[in-house]
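Tokens for chain A. Residues wanted.
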């Protein structure tokens, strides 16, 4: 393992002028006392936050080239640069074993010895172990290409986890890796190398670059577009002629049998086995199921809230807002809507300043005719390949996406988001999740000014969470965390600008409004399992709700 020394690190960004630095320091010092925490990066940024305690273990034992930004949290350039660094870190998170981004706040006194050990005097300074010389501020695409250039042209020692990036003269041979993706491109294109790194942590797939000048292979496959990707074995040949890497990454990471290293290979027979009391129900991954929404309500109202024997103060108003939003916007079957409305009325009529959970439970269970919430959970679109995957948190996201879309006539564009925010804050059982979500909400939820931006806010922050959790232990290997929706699910949501992937917000909004609309919800598994449920007699969905026959939700199986 290679050990870093400070001489191997070379500055690639020149410090701002001393004069401007001093005036910045003076200005900032007048406004704020020096704080020793609060850096520009947090654990959720895919940026390694260096401290005196972790720096040695990170550097010495790293298989990766580490690109470190030395910054001072008060420095305006650093603040301006931090979104670029975060975007780049998120963009190349799959490259981690080969190249990883880090940051250290030299304004934090505790970090001083580390910063001086690496000879840093101006901020921000980027240093990379033995790779980079000098460059100026660049957009992150430029930085990404620069990193690849340096990885390719560097002298020994090579980060041990870096995959081969050179072009291949491969003949058409099947191989032992499983899938083989051939990326045809011109010599100045980076897509092949980027894709190789994007799939670095995935098994059963190899990516090889083939130059457009490889006439034999180009002619044999009749390749006319560069770049384009051809996939071999075991699924035969396919081609996608989209010009940016994100599309290839999406497609290749989701091939059958392709899994992130260290994750068990999904075995389809696992899913078919009746190992849990809940058997796997066939379902369409591109759809939203009412059964997940009802299961989420059951779990939230009968399990999660039950952990709070007495609900008062802020928690009580949170509960009232949550139930009120559900009563207004939940696109449920009539019996369920009747129940939500009756609980809402009951809560609004309660004048006590505190509520016992048992009285809420009574209101949920001993209700008026034609009003009921089915007992138990029946996950469908939110099923996981193992009992600890997906389910309730998946249902929670889905519920609130549906509610933001349903609230199309709300007077207050933040009504649903704020109800979600306070529910998560007061009650969501995953406390770390609640903290993360609250941080995101504090940062930007107050900027939401229209109903459309509420829908998009939840979409984009859910993708933020997906980005942070990609590759985490909690990720179901059958349902990798992606920047959603995939190009297959919504082709028009994706676009390309200056060679980089972009989202088309107008198309996204149209897509989200349709995907989460009440007309589009599937009712599979609702009715019959309510019958077979041992406690279904309490629910009486089928016997006491004749009006359900005219509800479009109940017409046929899709
Ligand atoms: C508020 C909240 C905060 C959380 N924070 C954390 C956390 O900090 N750490 C942690 O480990 N887990 C956290 N979780 C759980 C985590 O986000 C997932 O819900 C869980 O890992 C299950 O993942 P999943 O594969 O079912 O997909 P989920 O992320 O739960 O998504 C459910 C479904 O929604 C759709 N979807 C995906 N992305 C989007 C999008 N951007 N917009 C609209 N629809 C989308 C997809 O069809 C997906 O299958 C949080 C959950 C919630 C509700
Ligand atoms: C590097 O890893 C080894 C083995 O895991 C460990 O014993 C050692 O303490 C680590 N070195 C540092 C500096 O953390
Ligand atoms: C699982 O259970 C269902 C219903 O009980 C049954 O029809 C099916 O054959 C079982 N599947 C397996 C693989 O045992
Ligand atoms: C799943 O849903 C999508 C979107 O509605 C549809 O196009 C597709 O045909 C469905 N797949 C199956 C197997 O029903």
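Reply:
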């Amino acid at each position: 393992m290679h050990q870093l020394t400070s001489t191997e690190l070379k500055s690639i960004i020149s410090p701002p002028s001393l004069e401007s630095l001093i005036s910045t320091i003076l200005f900032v010092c007048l406004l704020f006392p020096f704080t020793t925490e609060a850096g520009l990066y947090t654990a959720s940024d895919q940026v390694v936050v260096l401290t005196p305690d972790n720096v040695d273990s990170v550097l010495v034992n790293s298989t990766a080239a580490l690109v470190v930004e030395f910054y001072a949290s008060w420095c305006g350039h650093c603040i301006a640069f931090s979104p670029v660094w975060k975007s780049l870190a998120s963009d190349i998170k799959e490259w981690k074993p080969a190249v990883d981004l880090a940051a250290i706040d030299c304004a934090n006194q505790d970090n001083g010895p580390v910063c001086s050990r690496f000879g840093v005097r101006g901020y921000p300074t980027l240093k990379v172990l033995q790779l980079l010389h000098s460059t100026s501020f660049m957009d992150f695409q430029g930085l990404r290409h620069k990193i690849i250039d340096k990885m390719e042209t560097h002298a020994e020692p090579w980060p041990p986890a870096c995959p081969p990036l050179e072009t291949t003269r491969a003949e058409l041979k099947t191989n032992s890796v499983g899938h083989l993706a051939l990326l045809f491109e011109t010599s100045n294109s980076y897509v092949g190398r980027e894709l190789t790194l994007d799939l670095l942590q995935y098994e059963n797939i190899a990516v090889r670059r083939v130059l457009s000048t490889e006439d034999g292979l180009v002619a044999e496959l009749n390749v006319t577009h560069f770049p384009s990707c051809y996939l071999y074995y075991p699924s035969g040949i396919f081609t996608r002629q989209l010009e940016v890497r994100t599309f290839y990454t999406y497609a290749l990471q989701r091939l059958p049998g392709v899994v992130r290293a260290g994750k068990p290979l999904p075995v389809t027979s696992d899913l078919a086995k009746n190992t849990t009391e809940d058997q796997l129900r066939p379902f369409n991954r591109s759809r939203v199921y009412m059964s997940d929404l009802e299961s989420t309500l059951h779990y939230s109202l009968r399990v999660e809230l039950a952990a709070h024997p007495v609900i008062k103060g802020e928690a009580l108003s949170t509960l009232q807002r949550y139930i009120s939003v559900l009563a207004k916007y939940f696109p449920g079957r009539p019996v369920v809507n009747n129940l939500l409305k009756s609980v809402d009325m009951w809560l609004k009529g309660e004048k006590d300043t505190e509520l016992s959970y048992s009285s809420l439970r009574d209101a949920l269970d001993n209700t008026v005719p034609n009003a009921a919430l089915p007992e138990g959970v029946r996950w469908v679109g939110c099923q996981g390949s193992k009992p600890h995957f997906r389910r309730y948190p998946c249902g929670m996201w889905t519920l609130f996406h549906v509610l933001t879309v349903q609230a199309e006539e709300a007077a207050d564009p933040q009504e649903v988001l704020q109800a979600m925010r306070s529910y998560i804050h007061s009650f969501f059982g995953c406390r770390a999740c609640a903290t993360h979500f609250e941080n995101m909400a504090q940062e930007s939820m107050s900027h939401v000014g229209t109903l459309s931006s509420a829908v998009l806010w939840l979409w984009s922050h859910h993708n933020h969470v997906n980005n942070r959790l990609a590759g985490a232990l909690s990720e179901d290997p059958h349902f990798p965390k992606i920047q959603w929706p995939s190009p297959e699910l919504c082709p028009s949501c994706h676009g390309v600008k200056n060679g980089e992937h972009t989202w088309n917000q107008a198309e996204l909004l149209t897509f989200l409004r349709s995907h989460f609309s009440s007309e589009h919800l599937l009712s599979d598994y609702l009715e019959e399992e309510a019958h077979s449920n041992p406690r279904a007699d309490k629910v009486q969905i089928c016997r006491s709700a004749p009006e359900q026959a005219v509800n479009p939700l109940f017409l046929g199986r899709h």
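Confidence is low (pLDDT under 50) at residues 1-37, 130-138, 265-278, 529-558. The pocket of 2-acetamido-2-deoxy-beta-D-glucopyranose (ligand 3) is lined by residues 272-274, 279 (CB under 6 Å).
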